[in-house]
Amino acid sequence: MKLLRAYLADFAALLFPELCPACQASLVAGEYIICSDCRFNLPFTNFHQQPANIVAQQFWGKINVEAAYALYYFHKGGKIQNLMHHFKYKGMQQIGNLLGTIAGAQLASNDIFSSTDLIIPVPLHKRRLRERGYNQSTCFAHGLAEKLNASVDEHSLVRTVATKTQTQRSRFARFENMQNVFAVKDPAALEGKHILLVDDIVTTGSTVEACGAELLKVPGVKLSIAAIAYAV
């Protein structure tokens, strides 16, 4: 029976092959979501080993951040863009969880990130959340939580304004677009916590900065930042 199931699975794979969302190569037995070549050769940043990395520099002089990190470099037209497209717009939520576990394994070896109490994803507006069906940053957060032994808090930070896309905006316009957009619902629940704020892609950092500024109004909060990718 096991042999028959294996034959049927192989036959189904020939007719409907699972493709790696990063490179479109067919997945082979033992590969999960991302092919082995991409798993090892995507553009890792290794920012967990570089305290003064370029993501951290985005926030110098703006908000007080303990540490900042992105798992990959994002290049337009590259494999990470392909991966993120499938994650955000093709319903492949499992990509976020997988990338979260990969990032979490790196961050667990870092003294600052490993002291995280709560992981808070950058929130979507409730209207956008209904349209998409899920928050990609939340998927990433749950993967991180598996490795960092921390809790995911999806409710304390909320987006109160449905802003337009940031894609074509200048750095200053992005910053202005994020003013007074986020709020903390129950500050007392966050007092004294080390919060890891997570987003999918950091470009100018204006969205994360706006979220972080609200969280840092809570007494005793320490803030770190993690993202799937940094756009270069």
Automatic annotation (TrEMBL):
Tell me what organism the protein belongs to. Mucilaginibacter rubeus
The highest taxon in the source lineage is: Bacteria
Q: Which PANTHER family match?
A: DNA UTILIZATION PROTEIN YHGH
- Show the coiled coil region(s): none
Please give the name of this protein. Answer: ComF family protein
CDD domains xrefs: PRTases_typeI (cd06223)
Phosphoribosyltransferase domain location: 173-223
Matching SUPFAM superfamilies? PRTase-like
Concerning its family, UniProt says: Belongs to the ComF/GntX family.
